[in-house]
Design goal:
235 residues; alpha/beta; TIM Barrel; eight-stranded parallel barrel; 45% helix; 16% strand; binds cytidine-5'-monophosphate
Length: 235
């Protein structure tokens, strides 16, 4: 798996996706989320993979261990490179997810990386304390879930750039910290509350960045991608 910026393909249809991808003449790392996957199904993944791109399938699974294991077995067969679960599903669910991926990975292929969502970045500390009844700070909860994910054998977490350094201190440099909320300086922040530039993310412990609208809604998407890439480290 490379550390190219992951482009969030938040498009409603296959046609939009391939119009976007056809502007690039290089292999990319893309993120497919629920909107596109539920609309187009597994075939969209196969088509993107056939074009030589890496895929992070962002479905954030959270169910009983047996169900997640079976679902992951199927996702591994699709040849995706990264998948994820909610750490709140617990260590048995995370371990089951890993087993499912191992079982579903075709012989001779690499198992998809498995990362965990800790606390959603849309969750506020107040909401977490009042609704989830977790009586700590948001950062402590995020660190707790990151540790649990690591102990369960996972490869990393999705987190905010602002949490990446603390997670690095607890879980190490190799543990993946995939961070959304990335904007070019001077760009619109849209609905993201806490945004960071690619270079800030690099300096603050992110191992991968997820970039959506800063690229997909740019006037020149290829130029915007290359600007992000250059600021991220020219990979
Ligand atoms: O357009 P933008 O760069 O804000 O897109 C960010 C992408 O990362 C979206 O696909 C969003 O769903 C996803 N994401 C996020 N925050 C998280 C997890 C995923 O923004 N905590």
């Amino acid at each position: 798996m490379t550390n190219k910026p992951m482009i969030a393909l938040d498009f409603p249809s296959e046609e939009n996706v391939f119009n976007f991808l056809s502007q690039f003449h290089e292999p990319l790392f893309v993120k497919v989320g629920l909107e596109l996957y539920l609309q187009e199904g597994p075939s969209i993944i196969k088509k993107i993979k056939e074009q030589g791109h890496e895929v992070f399938l962002d479905l954030k699974l959270h169910d009983i261990p047996n169900t997640v294991k079976s679902a992951m077995r199927g996702l591994a067969k699709l040849g995706v490179d990264v998948v994820n679960v909610h750490a709140a599903g617990g260590s048995s669910m995370m371990k089951a997810a890993l087993e499912g991926l191992q079982e579903g990975t075709p012989a001779g292929k690499k198992r998809p990386a498995l990362i965990a969502v800790t606390q959603l970045t849309s969750t506020s500390e107040e909401q977490m304390q009042q609704e989830q009844k977790i009586a700590t700070t948001l950062e402590e909860s995020v660190l707790n879930y990151a540790k649990l994910a690591k102990e369960s054998g996972l490869d990393g977490v999705v987190c905010s750039v602002l949490e990446a350094k603390a997670i690095e201190e607890v879980c190490g440099k190799d543990f993946l910290k995939v961070t959304p909320g990335i904007r070019l300086s001077g760009g619109a922040s849209h609905d993201q509350k806490r945004v960071a530039t690619p270079s800030f993310a690099k300096e603050n412990g992110s191992t991968h960045i997820v970039v959506g609208r800063a690229i997909t809604q740019a006037d020149d998407v290829v130029e915007a991608y290359h600007t992000v890439q250059a600021q991220w480290g020219g990979q």
